Amino acid sequence: MTTWVETPGEGRERGPVGIGRAWVDVLVRPRGFFRNGVVPGDQAPGLVFAVVVAFAFVATRFLLVPGSVPAIQGGPVLSATLALLAVCLLIAPATLHLTAAIQTLLLMALVTDRAGVSETVQTVAYATAPCALAGIPVPELRALCAAYGAFLLAVGLSEVHDTSLVRAAVAAAVPGALVFGYAFGGFGAVVSVARAWALI
């Protein structure tokens, strides 16, 4: 589950250009992306992609949301640097693989003939694409990013594991809630939007 496949396979292109292309492709052409860009035993591009998305999310919050930098030590710059390192090196990879493990167990219960664990890791990773923008302090945007990420997860599971969209959505409900509802703040954003609308 935690294996990083170093040898490039037939999945996504490596490097900054590959990450950028993957980000655009998964947002604009998700079915084709998950059908062609997710391959067995090629987790490294997906893991790097998820780390970059997490970095963008946290770094944007640190820059645009006053008081969001945790007080660790040595002032705000050092605190932000240490927090970003923790996110990129520990929190994002661990969260990705934990979520993929939960997702795999749910798929085992719901889908008989399914793809492997590596493909599930990649699917969860690439589904986070919209959340690169979720750090911008606009509740409506964050709610939209989280909702689209959850949709991408269901679409990706449907394509990668060759199952119906309804069954994939059921399997993705809990992992989607954990990643997009809690980790990327989707639930809080929806509550903020609902309260704002109630005041109008």
TrEMBL record:
Swiss-Prot/TrEMBL keywords: Membrane, Transmembrane, Transmembrane helix
UniProt xrefs under InterPro entries: Yip1_dom
UniProt keyword Transmembrane, yes or no: yes
One GO cellular component, as annotated: membrane
Transmembrane segments: 44-65, 77-102, 168-194
Subcellular location: Membrane
Coiled-coil blocks: none
Membrane topology type: Multi-pass membrane protein
Keyword Ligase set for record: no
Pfam families reported for this sequence: Yip1
Yip1 domain mapped to chain residues: 25-181
Entry protein name: Yip1 domain-containing protein
